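Lab notebook: predicted structure, single chain.

Context: the supervisor wants predicted structures on file for every construct in the current expression panel, including those that have not yet been purified. This is the next one on the list. No modifications to the sequence; it matches the entry in the shared construct table.
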Amino acid sequence: MHGRGNLSKMANGALGILGTMGGLASVQAESFLLLISLLLSVVPASAEPDAFQSAVAFALTGRDDKPIRVIDSANCIFSINVGFGVNAGEEIFHLNNVQIDRLKMQETFEPRPLVDTNKHLTIELHGNDTVYENTKVSTIDGEVGRLLAQRGQPTIFGPTRSNEHRLSIITSEVDRVARAWKYIYAHGCKGQKSSF
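Prediction complete. Output recorded below exactly as produced.
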């Protein structure tokens, strides 16, 4: 915000100087400063992510430090990165396609020795159209892969697309995840209603 205010002051000062200029240089300078003024009015005052994107990130991950990628903000399509290296991919969520009256959250407790919390939250997403995509391709190799191949079973899975998905989150802030989902549908995404 502070930097933006300084730019505004500089633009106003430059406009004062323009009064002393004449001819083509004055017209070009005025055009340039008008463009700067327009850009300043469009640029958000804060570089922090907005509350809506923060709510989407928290609803999908249960964490504040996990970034999301906006694929299509008008249609509420977001993705999160999953896996590493050759197992890397994206989980893509089509939030406008989710039937919000069927959105269900279930909390369970599972002992997890290497994780800070043992609260496990499952969120069920349903829709008539795609609600979830996974771009990750997984390969089963080793002895299990060899046995599956001998039986004619697939050993490579993905990418997938579905109108139903169970999202699993490990978090100690279950109530906050529920508030984030409410915020999403109150401040941007439309969602759908089921027939019955």
